[in-house]
Amino acid sequence: MPETPITIQFEGKAVPCRIDATVAAALWEHGLRVLSHSPKYGRPRGLLCARGHCMNCLMRVDGVPNVRTCHLPVADGLRIERQDSGAFYAPPMQKLLNTTGHLLPVGFYYKWFTRPAAVSNCFMKGIRPMTGVGRLPERENWNGDSPFESRDFGRLGTVVIGAGVAGMTAALEADDDVLLVDDHPDPGGQRRAALDRIALNTPDVLAGLTDLDRLHRDLGSLASRVEDHDGIRFLPNTTLVGAWQPDMLLLRNEAGLIQLRARRVVWAAGAFDAMPLFEDNDLPGLIGPRALYRLLTRDGLTVRGLKTVVWGHGADLWASASLLHASGAQVTLALDDRASSDGALLETAHRFGWALQTNTDIVAASGRDGSLDHLELTSNGARHEIPCELAVLCVHGKPTYDVPYQLGVDLVLDPERGGFVPRRADTAATGSVSVVGEAAGMGPLDVLSEVSP
Amino acid sequence: MSKCILCRCEDVTLAEFRKAYADGFQELESLKRFTGVGTGFCQGKGCLVESALELASLRGVAPGDIPLTNIRPPVLPLTFGELASLDIPPLIGELELPDHDTEVSP
C-alpha cells in the first residue's frame, strides 16, 4: 500500500485516503456511505452496482455533476459533494419525506388537478420545478469543450460482447476474426479477478471449494488462450451502449464512442445482480456478488475487520464469502432454502471460522446513520438479528436482456433462469445473433460444464 | 419508516405497485407509465424483472405471459458531447428501421 496519503474534500470536510482508492471507496472507509438520496422519499443511497448502471454513486466532483464516484480515482484536493442538495436531505427532512410521501401516491399527477384547464396549468407550474434537482456545472471547471472522438471500426466478422467463460469460449470457437469486448481491463471479467484474489491471499480456501477452483483454472487458461490467439482482438474497458438491428453496434470507452457493424454478434454479457424484495432492501451496504467482485478487486474498497453477511445460494455465495474472507472481513454465511448442503462446502465454512446459518430468509434490513447496521433473518423458523455493515445477497443473476432485445432476440420471462431469456436456447446457433452463458439464463458453473467436458 | 422498494431510481414501493394494479393498471407497459418503474436512470436494470414477476403473480398467470416492455438504445447514459461526436450520416444511409419501433404506438 502506498505510504503517502492524499486528501479529498467531502462537503467541506478533509478526507485522507489511499492513493489507489476510488472516491466512493475512500468515503466508505471513513464511514461516509450515503452518497445520494432517493428522489421522492429522500432515502439514503450508497454503493450498489459498481458498473455505471445505477444512479446511487453519482456525485458533484469539482463542480461537475453526475460523476460516477464508484469508478473515479482519488486526486489530491478533489472537491466532492452530494448533488441532491445535502442540507435539504438532512435526517429530519428524510423522516418527513418518508412519512408523508404516501400523501402524493404514485401517478397522482395523472389523476389530480387535471381539470379545469386553469387549475391544471397552475398545478403544472408548481410541480414542474420539483421534477429535477441539481445544479449545472461550474463554468470554470466544465471541460465541455474537450473534444470527444468517435471512431468507426467498419464491418467486422464476429463481435463477442463479454469476456467471461461463455464469451471467451465463443471467441475461441469462431471461425473468423473476432473483436472481444469487455468492461473489465482483462479477459475473464470480474469473477476471474475475484478468484485470483482468493487464490493469492487464501489458496487453502479455494482448494476446499472444488467447483470454484476449477472455474478459476478454466478462466485463467481461457484468458491466456485468448491473449495468445492471433485472430482475437481484445477491447478492454469498453461497454456496449446500444444496438440497432440487424447488425449495428455502438460502444463506448474512455476515448469516446465506437460504431461498427458485425456479421455475427455473440452476446455474452452475463447477468445483473438481482436484489430481493424485503423491508428496507435499498439500504446502503446491501449489494450483489458482481458488485462485490468489482468493488473489492478493481475499485479498491477495503473491508478489513468489517462484519459482513453473505446470504443466498449458489457459486456466487461461496465466491463472495471467500473473497470477503480473503480481504480480511468477518463472514457470516446465511444459506437460503435453495442452497446446497454439500458437506465439503460446509466443512470449508467451518474450517475458516465463518458463522453459519441454514434455511434462512431475509425479513428486513435495519440501518444506523443511513447505512446497514443489521439484517433480520429467520433461520429454521426462528428470528435472528445479525449485525453487519455489508451484506452480499446472492440469488440467480438477472440475464442481461436489453441489447438482445434490440438485436431482435425473442425473449421470455422465466424465473427459473432468472429473468428475460431467449425463448429458444438454440437461437444461438442459427442466426447472426447468439446469446450465451449467464445472459441465456445459465448459472456460472453451468457455463463451465458446457464448455469443458 | 420502513419500505420495500421495488424501483430504486423512481422510488416506487412494492405496495404502490400493487395499489396501481388494483387501480386498474394491469399491463407492464401501463404500470411502467403510471408508476414510473423502469423509467429511471437505470432504465429497468434494477426492477423490470421484479416488476414483471410481481405482475404475473398479481394476475395469476404464468411469468411467460408477461411480455417485456420496449427498450430503446442507448442502454447507458451518454453525454450530449459524446452523442455530438458521432459521425451520423453514413450510418443513417445504411440503417434499416427495426421492427419493434414500427409496432409500438406512442
Keywords:
heterodimer, A: about 450 residues, alpha/beta, FAD/NAD(P)-binding domain, 7-stranded mixed sheet, 14 helices, 25 strands, about 30% strand, globular, B: about 110 residues, Arc Repressor Mutant, subunit A, two-stranded antiparallel sheet, 6 helices, 2 strands, about 45% helix
Write the layout of secondary structure elements.
The complex is a heterodimer of chains A (453) and B (106).
Chain A (H helix, E strand, L loop, with lengths): L5 E5 L2 E5 L5 H7 L6 E2 L6 E2 L12 E4 L2 E5 L10 E3 L9 H10 L7 H4 L5 H11 L21 E13 L3 H9 L4 E4 L7 H13 L1 H6 L1 H19 L3 E4 L3 E6 L3 E6 L2 E12 L3 E2 L13 E2 L1 H9 L9 E6 L2 H12 L3 E7 L6 H9 L3 E14 L2 E9 L2 E6 L2 E5 L3 E2 L2 H5 L4 E4 L4 E4 L4 H4 L2 E3 L8 H8 L2
Parallel strand pairs in A: 1-7, 8-9, 8-13, 9-10, 13-25, 15-21, 16-17, 16-21, 17-18
Antiparallel strand pairs in A: 1-2, 3-4, 5-6, 5-7, 11-12, 12-13, 14-22, 18-19, 19-20, 23-24
Helix pairs in contact in A: 5-8, 6-8, 6-9, 6-10, 9-10
Chain B lengths: L4 E3 L4 E2 H9 L5 H8 L12 H12 L20 H5 L3 H7 L4 H5 L3
Antiparallel strand pairs in B: 1-2
Q: Overview of this structure, please?
A:
The complex is a heterodimer of chains A (453) and B (106). Chain A has helices at residues 23-29, 91-100, 108-111, 117-127, 165-173, 189-201, 203-208, 210-228, 289-297, 315-326, 343-351, 402-406, 427-430, 444-451; strands at residues 6-10, 13-17, 36-37, 44-45, 58-61, 64-68, 79-81, 149-161, 178-181, 232-235, 239-244, 248-253, 256-267, 271-272, 286-287, 307-312, 330-336, 355-368, 371-379, 382-387, 390-394, 398-399, 411-414, 419-422, 433-435. With 453 residues, chain A is an alpha/beta fold. The longest helix of chain A has 19 residues, at 210-228. The two termini of chain A are 41 Å apart. With 106 residues, chain B is mostly helical. Chain B has one domain (5-103): Arc Repressor Mutant, subunit A (Orthogonal Bundle), CATH 1.10.10. The termini of chain B are far apart. Mean pLDDT of chain B is 86; it is low at 101-106. Classes of the chains: A alpha/beta (453), B mainly alpha (106).
